[in-house]
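Running this now, will post back.
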Amino acid sequence: MRAVPSLTVGDDPRERGRLHGARFADDIASNLETYLRRFEASGLDRDTAFLEGNRWYASIRRQNEDYAEEMRGIAEGSRHGEPAIAVLNARYELAFTLFGQDAARNEALRKELLTVGPDGCTTFGLLPEATADGHTWLGQNWDWLAGVHDRNLVLRVRRRNGPSFVCFTEAGIVGGKMGVNEEGIGLVENGLASSNDGVNPYEKPFHVRCREVLDAGRFDNALRPVVDTRRTCSANFVIGHADGEIIDIETSPNHLTYLHPEDGIVTHSNHFAGTGHGESQMEKIAPNTLYRASRIRRLLRGTKGGITFDDMRRVTQDHFGHPNAICRHADETQPEAKRTMTTGAVLIDLNARVMHVANGPPCTYPYVPFTIDGEE
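Update: finished.
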C-alpha cells in the first residue's frame, strides 16, 4: 500500500507536461490500455478511438491553448502520440460523442455506454457554520474503473502567471479534477448522464473545465468555465471558496441547475436533483446513487457538534450497500474491464489550502496531506 505520488511543476505548460509524461510514462501506458479495453468492451475499436483523439485534440487546442500544450508535453515525455493523450483527456466525452444519437434510440446500447462514460462519485461541501474548525471543506470519494487505481498522482503547479494550486489527477490527464488553489478556490465533482448527452459534439471537455476552475483568481471566474458554454456531456461541479461560499452546479448539454448548502451542508452523487436536463440516466444502471447522497448528508448531520476531520473520514468509510457503497469496492461478479471502486478520495481544507488524499478506498488507505508549497 503506497501513498499517491506527487509531482511539482512550474509556469511553462509544455514543460509541465514533459515532466508529467516522463515521470509517469508507465502509469500513462497502463491507463491508456485500461480505457482502450473498456471502450472495446462496448464496441469502440482502438483505431476509431485514436481518430476521435485527433478530433478532440483539435477541439481542445481551439478552446484552451495552454491545456493543449500541456497535453503535447505529456505526449512527448511519455512517448505516446498526441491522439493517445487526447483520448485520456477527453475520455469522459468520448463514448457519448461517438454514439450519442444511436444511444438515444437504443436502450441497451445507452446502458452500455453509460458504464463507459461518467465517473461515479459521492461528494460533499461544508460551510464554516457546519465545521468544528470554522473552515470551508470539500470532500469526494472518486469511484471509477478499478484499472486506474494506483495510476494517479497529486500535481502541484507553482507559477507566477496565475494562481498556484494542488490537485489530484489520473496519469496522462493534465489535471485539476479535484483540488484547491492559493486563492482558496476548491473543486470536487460528480459524473452525471442525461438523455441529451452528445447533442453538442466537441464542446470544451469536462477535464479542461476542471483545470480552468483552478486557474481562476476570483470565485466568479471559477464559475465561468462551467456555465459560459454549452457542454457535450453532463457533469456536477461543487465549487467552494475559503471565505465561506459553496455552490453545486448540475450541468447537462444545454441546461444548468444551482444547488446551495442547507444547514451548511451540500451533498451529491450521480443523478440529477434538478429538472430540465432531459431524462436522468445513471440511476438506471447504478441505483446506488439514489441513497449515497442522502446517506452521507444524514451521516454528516448526525455528528455531535461541529463536523471534524475524523467525522469526515468516518463517513467516507461507510459501507452500507457494499460493494456499491459510499466507500466502494470492486464487484467481483462484474467483468474485470467493467469493475469500479473508490480509486481515490480527497478531503480539502480550503482555508488551510490542504488536500488530504487517500490512494484508494478510505477504509483501507490513510489520508495523506498535500499542500501547494510542500516539497517532494
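The domain at 118-371 is CATH 3.60.60.10 (Penicillin V Acylase; Chain A). More later if anyone needs it.
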